[in-house]
Structure formats: structure tokens, C-alpha cells
Write the C-alpha cells for this entry.
Amino acid sequence: MTLAAERSVGAGSIRLWRGDITRLAVDVIVNAANSQLAGGRGVDGAIHRAAGPALLHELRTRYPQGCPTGAAVLTGAHALPARWVAHAVGPRWIGGDGGEDALLASAYRTALALAAANGCATVAAPSISTGVYGFPVGRAAPVALAAAAAALAEPGTPLRTITFALFSAEDLAVYTAALTALPDPTA
Ligand code: ADP
């Protein structure tokens, strides 16, 4: 994996990588799911295609009520090279005054807490909410990176690397600038 950027936080690091998250053989990949957990477009569709139909079956069986915005649920990864998938539900952008930042932070925080609770060291996440859900990537990137940094700074966490899989060169550039500007959560 050729990293575009990396920054140490506590005993771990945040990494930026350009590519398809479904290829990553990490402990947990985070999915940008919808609250019905029904599969969808974008990264959700790519994850379901690569995992196979058993993923949707597991979601329907274990979480028939879906998952609220700002939360996440964990499943197996089925045919994916990862071990688990954390399905995190980010907010739809409604202009910025509807609590979108807090809901986005909460979606990442919950997914990373599930990974940590299961003893995972390596996580990969996409840029949640910045595709179909319309969250501006320049505003989402600092929120996403701050959530990752906070998780890595938790005392005793098993998390070691959180890799953001960015799909476009533009998104990678925005995340790279935001990672440089990110305050040190352990300072
Ligand atoms: P949301 O509905 O939360 O906005 P999307 O899947 O539409 O989710 O978009 C989230 C981000 O994921 C976008 O930047 C999109 O370009 C990106 N994306 C789409 N497919 C993949 C993939 N296979 N790997 C990583 N990122 C992806």
C-alpha cells in the first residue's frame, strides 16, 4: 500500500491512501451506510458487491431495525479481505445548521469504538457523507480526522492505524491539508 500521507497520534497513526477501500486487508473497514442498512450507491454498493449477498443477509438478520444516523453496527466481512465491516450511518447534508458535524463525528466515533471493543488494530474508513449525502469534503475532513485522532489517543486502545481510503485526487488533497492542520489530541 503506497501511502500519500501519515501522521503519528499516541501509539498509532492516521494514514491517507487513494484507492478502493474494498481491497484493504485490515481488521475493520468502515462502510458509509444508510439507516436502513439496505445497501446503496457509492462505497456502500462497492462493499456489498465485493462482500457478496451474505453481507446483506447478516444485516437483515441481526439488525432488522436498521441503525440511527450517527451510530454504527458491526458485521462479518464475508468475501472481503478485511475481517469485519463497521456500517456507520453519516448524516445527509442539510445546509450545516442541522447538527451534521456532530452526527458525522458520532458515526466515526461509534465505528471506531466497535473496532476497539473487538480488539482491532487496523481500520480503514472512507469519507463518510461526502458523496451522495452531499456533506462538503472540506468541512467533513477535519471532523473525520479529529474523530480518528481521538480514538488513537484513548488510553489502552488496541487501535494502531486508521487509514482513510479516499477515492479521488481532490478528496485526497483536501484530507492531506486537513491532516497537516489537525491539532495534536495528546498535546
Ligand atoms: P454517502 O452516502 O455517505 O455520501 P458515498 O458512498 O456516496 O456515501 O460517498 C462517500 C465517499 O466514498 C465519496 O467520496 C465516494 O467517492 C467514496 N467512494 C465511493 N466508492 C468508494 C470505494 N470503493 N472506496 C473508497 N471510497 C469510495
